[in-house]
Amino acid sequence: MLYSKIYNAAELKTPKAKLIVEGPVSAERLTSYRFHEDLTAFRPPEEQFKAIMEIAKLPEGRIIIASDHQTIVGYVTFLYPDPLERWSEGANPFLMELGAIEIIPEYRKYKVGKNLLQISMMDDFMDNYIIITTEYYWHWDLKGTGLTVWEYRKVMEKVMQAGGLEVFATDDPEISSHPANCLMVRIGKHVPRDAVEAFDLLRFKNKYMY
């Protein structure tokens, strides 16, 4: 499959600073940035910075960042689903996963996540993909935000909706293990019908759940 990476950028004014939201950012360009030490949601910052650089090197990989004077304070990643995940079965070339989105606590009140997703979808080529994200409550910073599980879920839905993602039903065991977990999806307008049907089969492996 052919890949397109159309660079887009915008300024986001916040009470703290004026951020630059941009991407997709190449691995080479990422080397000129510092990765904020509070980006710790998934692994230690230095390890996560290496991980997003590796994603940026992938043909399909996309990294969108928000930065404050060359310091990355937020990012979102897009790539094919992990080979060990349910969503990689069948190797659907039209299926892309929003693998991670993270913003440092200092900037979480200023719509940085929404802006990251809006910049991501400004690339028309994203309409060739089904974009998915799997939201699990155990990844959420409930302690740091003081939000309940359901309040945090509502926040995540609003953020993802800024990128055109909506909640889709599934019988995936991990998602079904807690009612706050969810699958959110954006189906691009150029995705072939057979690719959508293949995705529906992945969503519901138990035919009785349709």
UniProtKB/TrEMBL annotation:
One of its GO terms (molecular function) is acetoin dehydrogenase (NAD+) activity. The lineage of its organism: Bacteria, Bacillati, Bacillota, Bacilli, Bacillales. Transmembrane segments: none annotated. It comes from Scopulibacillus darangshiensis. It comes from the Bacteria. Residues 38-118 form the N-acetyltransferase domain. Coiled coil: none annotated. InterPro entries: AcuA (IPR024699), Acyl_CoA_acyltransferase (IPR016181), GNAT_dom (IPR000182). This is Acetoin utilization protein AcuA. SUPFAM superfamilies: Acyl-CoA N-acyltransferases (Nat). Gene3D superfamilies: 3.40.630.30. It holds the Pfam family Acetyltransf_1. One of its GO terms (biological process) is acetoin catabolic process.
